[in-house]
Amino acid sequence: MATTIESAAAAVGNKKKHLGIPEAVFVEDVDSFMKQPGNETADVVLRRLDEQYQKYKYMELNLAQKKLRLKNQIPQIKQTLEILRHMQKKKDSTDPMETRFMLADNVYCKASVPPTEKVCLWLGANVMLEYDIDDAQSLLEKNLATASRNLDSLEEDLDFLRDQFTTTEVNMARVYNWDVKRRSQANSSKTADMS
Question: Which DSSP letter does residue 43 get?
Fold first, then answer.
């Protein structure tokens, strides 16, 4: 009983790995595949496979955009963590920290920052919160770990998606070639009947 539950949990784990991306099934035997209900003509099957291919393309576009966002976000989090660590070292001293901060693209301003225990972090959606330096550092470390994990997961999903592209393209080629062969045989039998 325990073995069955473990194997079922492993199967669910595999399915959740690429949640939302349907798996393309390789068409091993085109003749038997074309005899299945709903596969009346090669055109219908090719249209359905092309629709599936376009859905994969759309998913790839979305995943690529998420990947780009994460690749931009990770260096920003690392830079902010580096600044927080520097502030952590300077918080016990009485000397103000000299720095430059960005006002706009390529426009910076000099600033003198007194030692402080608090920092403000942009959380997104025009929300900024004040944190203790230690709390801000732990939050950013957690966010960095999450972003890195999400990036790895996206890479795996993109690899899985590329496999689905390949499988769908091969299926389309096999169905098309099957149809060409079938038509060729039908034409050769018609010419044989006429002579």
Answer: H
